[in-house]
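Section 4.2 – Deliverable D4.2 (structural model, holo form)

The reporting period included a commitment to supply a predicted holo structure for the target in complex with fe (ii) ion. Inputs used:
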Amino acid sequence: MTHPVKRRDFVAMLSAAIAWSGFPFRSLLAQNEKAGDRNVEGEQPHREQPAPPSENQNVLPDDLKSYALLSLVLGRISDRSVTVSAVSQEAREGYFEYGLTSGNYSDKSKIIDLPRGQPVEVVLRDLKPDTQYFYRLNSRLKGGADYSHGEECRFHTQRSPGSHFRFAVQGDSHPERPQMHDPGLYARTLRNISMGNPDFLVCMGDDFSVAKLRTIDDETLKQPYTLQRPFLGLAARSAPLFLLNGNHEQASLFNFNQTDIRHEVAVGAQKARNLYYPTPTPDGFYSGNEHPLQSIGSLRDYYAWTWGDALFVILDNYWHSPTLVDSGFGERGGNGGRGGGHGKGLRQGQGHQQEAEDTKVAKSEQGRKQSGGHGNRDLWDVTMGDEQYQWFRKTLEQSTAKFKFVFAHHVLGTNRGGVDVSDLYEWGGHDRQGNWVFPEHRPGWELPVHQLMVKHGVTIFFQGHDHLFAKQERDGIIYQEVPMPADQFYRAWNIEHYGSGVRLPNSGHLEVSVSPHEVKVDYIASFLPKDETSLKRTGDLLHSYSVKPNATHA
Ligand SMILES: [Fe+2]
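Output (structure tokens):
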């Protein structure tokens, strides 16, 4: 279900408030019209534009600044509880009140301290299953007089089988890259997500890049996570947030295993994520990674839960591969070693080399196609790991859900494309020459990942990484590449790696409606006010499709 009229009314108001003029207009709509809401064939890849200077980068629009002063993010929603994470930019104290009716709150939490800049989690317990709740945070300056009432937010506890509900998905937000991220556009997408009233929001990774950090320590590694708080809070204060790591988070086993600064990056990044965002740990409602890692504790990297008639599975591409999966941190690690630590720490400016590294990876991908390798890496060494695989197999095997949704940053966590590369390595069991060599490379694994998903009737596999909308199908499974939420140039990155399916340019998000009989996926557009016309508005439906249980398409 979409709400174009309501959304348009809302964004019209928002448009008047957001003044954005930091980037040159580059025939964006002409390009988008070329792609339109039809398949795009043979379009040339777009080159990244040099990053223009912008004083507005990563700052909320003026009318939304209050959300930066006090941000709320929901997480770990279950049938009986929800966790609210609050970060205040000034020392405050407050309490949550909540209830079943808007404006009428029957319960309240204890008074909590909100130290300046420190995340505080409050668990609201003893809730009713499958129930809509309304809540707000009432707070005052520490030691102050009157409490001020926060804005009313909402959440819905676990849906029962047979329910109708929606969830939202956004792709790589990349706030560190002004050439593909406009904060005003990002805010519009997130507000638009909220207008759809989804039960939760899934972010596909590359939302917390460490690429622009000039120094590395526990405090600086928190910056990508604090930067996103007010933005993600625009949606996540009413839609519990589910995160997965992308390659740019650099939270990986390969980095962890090094003896230089990369170890600190891996530890600091994952700790910061788990500190600022209430992601799930295995607890009876969620299953997942039960093996804590030294210096981090519970990774909270892969997990699964059931909601209504659907199973949701979040996979992690990076925490279980001893070999470097995608681009390395700085210039380190590109040699594809098996986790051996070399070199001395890089503390100054190393992150600025990340985008150049991406280009190198893309070029090495071209070389791989010609030579049959991936640079000098053997991608059989890239893995989700035995434990995660066996947990995934068991999770699919034991689920009786009509619909099954699987999320990972990308097939294998590296490479480009969707179904085009889904027959390779541990994902598809074949080598580059098309030989079936799976058993010798993955002894003890029942099937490659793709074939396992086919066997268990996975409905949609969602991935990010490639920065465009692409819907493909293989063996009854939809491979859905998720569009970017804030690409102000509205491009279809990496389209040349998608040889089939519906391929559309950015920006926007996916809204997925689940009913007992089918799943409907809507691609909802986001435009900057200056780029809107009578034919192209934020909230427009760019593409829509439906899927029946057992992947029989409507
Ligand atoms: Fe990305």
